[in-house]
Amino acid sequence: MPGPARTPRRRHDRPREQVLAAAMATIAEHGLAELTMAGLGRQVGMSSGHILYYFGSKDELLLQTLEWSEGQLGSRRRTELARRAPARERIDAFVDLYLPDGRRDPRWTLWLEVWNSSQSADDDVRFRQLELELAWHRDLVVLLAEGATHGELRAVNPDRFAARTRALLDGFGTQLVVGLPGTDRRQVLGHVGEFLDEALLP
After folding, report:
1. Which pLDDT does position 77 carry in this prediction?
2. Is residue 1 part of a domain?
3. Which of 37, 43, 56, 82 has the highest CB neighbour number within 10 Å of its CB?
4. Whole-angstrom Cα distance, residue 84 to residue 79?
5. What pLDDT, on the 0 to 100 scale, is given for residue 10?
6. Is there a single domain that holds both residue 68 and residue 51?
7. What's the Cα-to-Cα distance from 102 to each of 5, 7, 19, 77, 107, rounded to whole Å?
8. How far apart, in Å, do the first and last CA atoms of the chain sit?
9. Are 101 and 129 in a shared domain?
10. DSSP-assigned states of every residue in 150-180
11. Domain check: are 48 and 87 in the same one?
12. Counted domains in the chain
């Protein structure tokens, strides 16, 4: 599960994108409980029926909002990872984008809701969720393999190590987004950094 919401403010010309941007803004400002079809309709000048025409259900709206949000963050992630910088430094950038900013981070709030609703969802919904997960996984695999090839990182099985690293980040990220007492982002970054140094530095 990835990263904090950093959605740029800009004009959205297409009605569907207007709704997705409004949904993310509402979650960021008021939380998921305040997100309703009627409220979104008022924000974008549509009826709730019009919004249902585009999305069919609130669960589908949330999943599409997550897909839209992840698409934006994915572009930023690829730019960060393509920089001419040491592999270990770029892994830190990956981690920074992956983890939530803190309690009630809107993107992570969406992830938690999609995870929860996927228990009763069909295979298509779970496959779409998996594709979002795999985008992060593939980028980390490439970075690990590249760092090992250039001698910057210890050689590991990149696929297995990426899976374990993402599980570690998901665990810490969940603690951060729910506001577990005694857990803060700086502390989490320290734990993750120590783990990566011990496992990857030659």
Report:
1. 96
2. no
3. 37
4. 10
5. 47
6. no
7. 11, 16, 25, 19, 11
8. 28
9. yes
10. TTSS----HHHHHHHHHHHHHHHHHHHHTT-
11. no
12. 2
Q: What's the confidence (pLDDT) of residue 3? A: 60
| Residues 61, 51 share a domain | no
Residue 48: the pLDDT is: 85
Is position 152 within any domain? yes
At 4 the pLDDT is: 55
Token pair listed for 106: 């809107």
Q: Are residues 68 and 104 in the same domain?
A: yes
| Contacts made by residues 24-28, CB under 8 angstroms, sequence distance 24+ | 24/65, 24/68, 24/69, 24/106, 24/107, 24/110, 27/65, 27/106, 27/109, 27/110, 28/106
Q: CA-to-CA distance for 52 and 41, rounded, in angstroms?
A: 10
Residues 30, 49: one domain?
Answer: yes
Does residue 180 fall inside a structural domain?
yes
d(C-alpha 110, C-alpha 118), whole Å: 12
Domain that holds residue 130: 57-200
Cα–Cα distance measured from residue 57 to residue 55, given in angstroms and rounded to the nearest whole number? 6
Could you tell me if 137 and 165 are in contact, meaning their C-beta atoms sit under 8 angstroms apart? no
Chain Cα centroid distance, residue 5: 8
* Tens of each residue's pLDDT in the chain, 202 residues: 766 554 444 444 478 888 999 999 988 888 888 888 888 888 889 888 888 888 988 889 999 999 999 999 999 999 999 999 999 999 999 999 999 999 889 999 999 988 888 877 788 889 999 999 999 999 999 999 999 999 999 999 999 999 999 999 999 999 999 999 999 999 999 999 999 999 999 8
